[in-house]
Amino acid sequence: MQNSPSLSSHSALMALSPLDGRYAAKVAPLRPLLSEYGLMHRRVQVEVEWFIALSDAGLTGFAPLSEASRGLLRGLVTRFSEADAQAIKDIEKTTNHDVKAVEYWLKARFEQNAELTAASEFVHFACTSEDINNTSHALMLKAARAEVLLPGLERVIAQLTEMAHGFADVPMLSRTHGQTASPTTVGKEFANVVARLQRARERIAEVPLLAKMNGAVGNYNAHSVAYPDKDWEAFSRQVVESGLGLTFNPYTIQIEPHDYMAELFDAVTRCNTILIDFARDVWGYISLGYFKQKLKDGEVGSSAMPHKVNPIDFENAEGNFGLANALLAHLSQKLPISRWQRDLTDSTVLRNMGVALGYAVLAHESLSRGLGKLEINTDALAADLDGAWEVLAEAIQTVMRAHALPQPYEQLKAFTRGKPMTRDMMQGFIANLALPQSEKDRLLAMTPGSYLGLAAALAKRV
After folding, report:
1. 78 to 41, 44, 48, 81, 177: CA distances (angstroms)
2. 266 CA to centre of own chain
3. How far is residue 278's CA from residue 312's CA, in Å, rounded to a whole number?
4. 344 CB neighbour count, 10 Å cutoff
5. At how many degrees (to 10) do helices 98-109 and 129-144 cross?
């Protein structure tokens, strides 16, 4: 019987998720933001900001903290380490409650400071765990969106924009329904994707990240009984918006309802879908020979066929965007649903935000790498166009319409549909038309590679 590896092994080879194994380095920027460590870090930040704000609230029994104590508290956030996270996990082994473990860890940090020790019971004051968790999750998403997700997407958009401009004048045969169609340019097809992604990027960036600090069922029950004269809603709004930089949600149950999360994840999903569409198209263009891929010494395309240079980056991107979308769709559909004032089904699902967004980040990286390998093959593009003279039928019948010639569409349909066309055949047809000579000359000078409309200008404008 084969020996089993140690279950205590934490090597990449033993990771269940490829994000923590094979692809660990490629999603490393997300790890401190959306991991268990990241969640603990944000919990400490929220507890600290709530505690400091309480000291400034004019509450009986809690005077404003000194600058030294504020510095110590905020230093716990800025210097939060993996060892600190492990210390909290060790406390959790006793409490069997992750948020309470953070509270106890904070209070233990107060032991050498008399001012903080005297006020230690105001740590987590009037809070339910979800006050800490929902704000922490929003902060995690805020950082992940700003520092990793959007920059990765913007790199792809920048690459595509450069290619749209660079290939703006390179003619390419279109295919609608897989059949030859009116020509375009390579740059215009890239510009189409850029325009879609720019809109999708804005939708992701503009989703407000909501949070609440309103107690066990959203009514400030405990707050109001302890200090009935305090405007707790205004205070909570101040902490959420000014202290944490989030958007205050005044109406919740025990949990913030997660509708904004669904909106954010749906926006990411739509962006991913655009990129799946693009990855498949580029895969097809590579297959047609429109693009070559730069070679790298030592790489192998197939274990059996030495000639192969496979479009693996675009295939990897497509697969990982698909995984991201499957997970994001579940998050979007599940998170806004909670039984009565709360159940715990959202908690375990929220721990997979990093997995869902990790696959999107991985796909951005694959797509960017694939784009960097592409080289335009103008010979293949030109040859494809030169074998598709039938695409000029649209131009010819439209000019005939403009000059009121009889049944232009029907004439071109009978002449071209389902038949191989050559330059001589198309020019012979034009020569026999009852058009002004200037119009005939214009049509006779046209080739599939010059019948481009505004494609180049549109590509350069994006």
Report:
1. 9, 10, 11, 9, 56
2. 10
3. 14
4. 10
5. 90
Catalytic residue among 9, 81, 302, 450: 302
Residue 255 burial (CB count, 10 A) = 24
Instruction: Tell me the C-alpha to C-alpha distance, in Å, between residue 9 and each of 6, 19, 24, 98.
Output: 6, 16, 16, 25
**CA-only gyration radius of the chain, Å:** 31
Half-sphere exposure (CA, 13 Å, Cβ side) for 380?
12
Residue 302 pLDDT greater than 50, yes or no: no
Domains, the chain, in order of start with CATH, read: 22-125 (1.10.275.10), 138-210+255-378 (1.20.200.10), 387-450 (1.10.40.30)
**Mean of pLDDT values over 67-75:** 98
Q: What is the dihedral of CA 167, 173, 174, 179, to 10 degrees?
A: -160
Residue 450 tokens, joined: 């010059």
Residue 7 has pLDDT above 70, yes or no: no
Residue 247 has phi, psi (to 5 degrees) of: -105, 125
* Alpha-carbon separation of residue 136 from 41, 264, 359, 375, 428 (angstroms): 8, 16, 22, 45, 73
* Short-list 205, 197, 143, 146, CA closest to 371: 197
**In the annotation, is 364 catalytic?**
no
Q: What is the pLDDT of residue 12?
A: 82
Residue corresponding to tokens 């066990």: 216
What is the b/e burial string over 378-400, where b = at least 16 CB atoms within 10 angstroms of the residue's CB?
A: eebbbebbeebbbbbbebbbebb
User: How long a stretch of residues is the chain?
Assistant: 462
* Structural tokens at position 207: 């989703």
- 73-87, 284-298, 317-331, 350-364: least confident range: 284-298
Active site residue 120: no
Structure tokens at 216: 């066990």
* Helix or strand run (H / E) with residue 194: helix 186-205
For the ranges 284-288, 295-299, 340-344, 369-373, which has the lowest average pLDDT?
Answer: 295-299
- Enumerate helices (H) and strands (E) in the chain, giving the number of each: 21, 6
Q: What are phi and psi of 211, to 5 degrees?
A: -155, 160
Name the catalytic one among 8, 10, 177, 307.
177
Amino acid at 201: R
8 A C-beta contact, residue 374 and residue 283:
no
Burial 116-153 (b: 16+ CB within 10 A, else e): beebbebbbbbbbbbbbbbbbbbbbbbbbbeebbeebb
Q: What's the first-to-final CA gap in the chain, in angstroms?
A: 62
